Amino acid sequence: MGWSQLTWSWRALLLVVFFWGLISLSSAARLGASRQKFEVKKRLKRLNKPAVKTIQSPDGDIIDCVHISKQPAFDHPFLKDHKIQKRPNFHPEGLFDGNKVSETKEKSMPITQLWHVTGKCPEDTIPIRRTKEDDVLRASSIKRYGRKKHRTVPKPRSAQPDLINQSGHQHAIAYVEGDKYYGAKATINVWVPKIQQPNEFSLSQLWILGGSFGEDLNSIEAGWQVSPDLYGDNNTRLFTYWTSDAYQATGCYNLLCSGFIQVNSEIAMGASISPVSAYRNSQYDISILIWKDPKEGHWWMQFGNDYVLGYWPSFLFSYLADSASMIEWGGEVVNSEPEGQHTSTQMGSGHFPEEGFGKASYFRNIQVVDSSNNLKAPKSIGTFTEQSNCYDVQTGSNGDWGHYFYYGGPGKNPNCQ
Ligand SMILES: *[C@@H]1O[C@H](CO)[C@@H](O)[C@H](O)[C@H]1NC(C)=O
Ligand SMILES: *[C@@H]1O[C@H](CO)[C@@H](O)[C@H](O)[C@H]1NC(C)=O
User: Fold this and answer.
1) Cα separations (Å) of 28 from 20, 25, 31, 220, 271?
2) CA Rg, the chain, in Å?
3) Nearest 5 degrees, angle CA 218-CA 190-CA 177?
4) What is the pLDDT of residues 245-289, one digit of tens each?
5) Which helix (H) or strand (E) holds 205?
6) Could you tell me which residue ranges the Neprosin PEP catalytic domain spans (predicted)?
């Protein structure tokens, strides 16, 4: 009677609830998917500025020539009324002549970027590597695209360079500290290290560091990197990075956020470098100079002898608004293998320093900029590596190369499991 009727209505009610749930779940999923699409679109629209001209690079990149006043930097609220400085007021001068052709066994060859073979950007534009939908989708989140993963920053140990200790990151570096630095320079050998996992990377760079190694670390970084997650391939690319809060909320790679103001129409941040060195064969290197303009206080970057790329405005930073307290040069890789195992991702050429020229990767002519805006050899250079059986570093100095070091290694090997 009433009992069975109740059961039926309950059953009907349950069915209704069930289908209603199903429908709302699937529409929520649809909503989520369209929301993500919307977020990706929004991000791409913000990153990819209208182009005056577009160049298709052989490596699959699209280079947009964007008018200099339309570049991502000017999305920054503090840069709304910024007057672009077309060139630095001062250039560091030093005894060491960077223009002198190095007297190594192989002559230095001019290095360019791959996209140059298919075109040039007009005057008053800057080349920007276009971000594609896939680039954003490969990131751990749309928000984190273009940024380093959040790092934990423990108290530094006094006997070591104050590296940010993130489990899995491995370094082989040379460093100076204990003074006020206004810039740094190096000529970096260029290779294509093999990457074991797409979420790992291998880079060779210099770090301009300011502040204690707490939550407010300031860093300006530049060099070359292979990073499948960031770029979708295994090419060696020119890159920069900056942060004023230890990689948390500020900063990014290249021009992937507003900050760096580019003035150069020939070099694209994040574009592939060509040619690259081969084992026991031709060697190629790039020079990078970063210095603080004594007049405006901006941090400028120069690539090679000819390309002044642009600057990081002083206001982006706290400590670096004054000077740097430490400079590091060298390699970094990510080891994403589970505890107790080591990645076979290579650093540098993938060979140990002992092998020397043509086999191991090097940094040469490492110099710092002093308070008088002079380039000079650093006083005492320290070295650091977490596991020298995996990646190592060896310094030296001579007349041709000034202060130099060989660095890198294969990662996983019988002595590094
Ligand atoms: C990094 O931190 C881990 C755990 O906190 C520690 O075991 C390791 O020795 C640290 N490495 C360096 C280089 O400080
Ligand atoms: C990058 O290199 C790895 C091997 O080192 C290879 O498995 C992977 O397919 C390459 N990725 C791309 C996008 O070419």
Assistant:
1) 12, 5, 5, 42, 39
2) 25
3) 35
4) 888 888 999 999 999 999 999 999 999 999 999 999 999 999 999
5) strand 202-210
6) 163-417
Whose CA is closest to 83, among 268, 297, 251, 313?
Answer: 313
Task: Clarify whether 123 is annotated catalytic.
Answer: no
Q: Is 165 near ligand 1, meaning CB less than 6 Å away?
A: yes
Contact 111, 274 (CB under 8 A): yes
Instruction: Identify the residue whose C-alpha is closest to ligand 1 atom 10.
Output: 165
pLDDT value of residue 162: 52
Q: Which numbered atom of ligand 2 lies nearest the CA of 195?
A: 5
Residue 25 corresponds to which tokens in the numbers above?
Answer: 């779940």
Q: If we measure between CA atoms, which residue out of 321, 267, 329, 315 comes closest to residue 292?
A: 321
The answer to whether 113 and 273 are in contact (CB under 8 A) is: yes
**Alpha carbon 332 to chain centroid distance?**
11
In the DSSP assignment, the letter for residue 126 is E
Write the pLDDT tens digit of every residue in 369-409.
999 999 999 989 999 998 999 999 999 999 999 999 999 99
Count, residues in the chain: 417
In single-letter form, the type of residue at position 146 comes to: G
Catalytic residue among 332, 337, 339, 355: 332
Check if the beta carbon of residue 84 is closer than 8 Å to that of residue 296: no
DSSP string, 226-289: E-HHHHSS---EEEEEEESSTTSSS-EETTSSS--EE--SS--TTPBEES---TTS---EEEEE
What b/e readout covers 342-367, taking b as 16+ CB neighbours within 10 angstroms?
bbbbbbbbbbbbebeebbbbbbbbbb
Strands 261-262 and 273-274: unpaired
C-alpha 165 to ligand 1 mean position (Å) = 6
Contact between residue 68 and residue 125 where contact means Cβ atoms under 8 Å apart: yes
Domain boundaries, the chain: 67-116+131-408
Q: Is the peptide bond before 88 cis (omega within 30 degrees of 0)?
A: no
* Contact residues of ligand 2, CB 6 A cut-off: 194-195, 228, 233-234
Identify the helix (H) or strand (E) that includes residue 32: helix 2-47
From 151, 167, 213, mutation site for ligand 1 pocket: most ligand atoms within 8 A of C-beta: 167
